[in-house]
Specification:
Length: 290
């Protein structure tokens, strides 16, 4: 699993006689793992203050305090949960750039919710990318769940409209909307997503219950740009952190939480359709530091 600080013991032993160099090296490790300067500085300042106050000289105790501060940042909105309305269907729109694992995340989320006894419908509103509809159809068939799709290059808004019509008629609990994965700076994409939002409001008399941004854990600082632009334009309710494995750098999530005030709600961590869970800040912090 990914690590944020991989050699804290080594750094401690090397610089235990130079407190200044020790903390500078820890801060550098954080920044190298895609934590923003402001967030890294906040973590180090808080940990230094706490360890100095308690006269901590033991590396294991320093690790404990680091994990506590990281958990506090990740847990700023409490335990992550998905929003379900009193009157279904719940409508979740999943957005993100190409290649972040959005389609597989939708399938994993559909499987997770289905196992909770919920009736799912997928709206295949990515009519832009070649084979996107076929991929969603494959997962829908595999999970034996309903799907609405139109021809490639058809109006995504029409797919959303028809999906909600069917969801209401068939007493669906959750509608998962796949969307085109163009770059976050694409004006056409943002306009398309905003149009979908307007259609949803007209059909169910409320906005989306969740707008989830899929972010690849390997992306780096561009992930913060994605979260900032999508967040400003659409009002992101949470993040699906994808592809978290041994090569991932998890630091960017700390920056998105701390700098942009957007919480991680879901995490995917493998190829199997079961490899998804609600984000656990404490467990994640435990994994970040050796």
């Amino acid at each position: 699993m990914l690590k944020l600080i991989k050699n804290l013991n080594y750094i401690f032993n090397k610089f235990k006689n130079s407190e200044k160099e020790f903390w500078e090296n820890i801060e550098e490790e954080l920044i190298l793992q895609n934590v923003s300067y402001d967030t890294a500085n906040k973590i180090i300042s808080e940990v230094k203050e706490l360890t100095l106050k308690e006269n901590v000289k033991d590396v294991e105790k320093i690790k404990k305090v680091l994990k506590e501060r990281i958990t506090a940042i990740l847990n700023f909105k409490g335990s992550p949960s998905l929003s379900f309305p009193e009157n279904p269907p719940a409508v979740f729109m999943i957005v993100g750039v190409n290649g972040v694992g959005k389609t597989s995340s939708i399938a994993k989320l559909a499987n997770m919710l289905q196992k909770q006894g919920k009736k799912i419908l997928i709206a295949a509103a990515d009519t832009f990318r070649s084979a996107a509809i076929e991929q969603m159809q494959y997962f829908a068939d595999k999970l034996n769940i309903d799907i609405v799709h139109h021809k490639q290059h058809s109006d995504p808004g029409a797919v959303v409209y028809d999906s909600l019509d069917r969801a209401i008629a068939k007493d669906i609990d959750v509608v998962l909307i796949d969307t085109a994965g163009r770059m976050q700076t694409s004006a056409n994409l943002i306009d398309e997503l905003k149009k979908m939002q307007r259609i949803i409001i007209k059909k169910i008399n409320r906005p989306c219950d969740e707008i989830l941004l899929a972010i690849d854990a390997n992306t780096g600082q561009n992930a913060k740009s994605q979260a900032e632009i999508f967040g400003n334009q659409l009002g992101i309710s949470g993040i699906i952190l994808t592809k978290t494995d041994s090569t991932s750098k998890g630091g960017i999530i700390l920056s998105i939480n701390n700098d942009l005030n957007i919480a991680v709600k879901l995490i995917t961590f493998g190829e199997k359709i079961e490899d998804i869970s609600l984000f656990d800040p404490l467990k994640f912090a435990e994994l970040l530091i050796d």
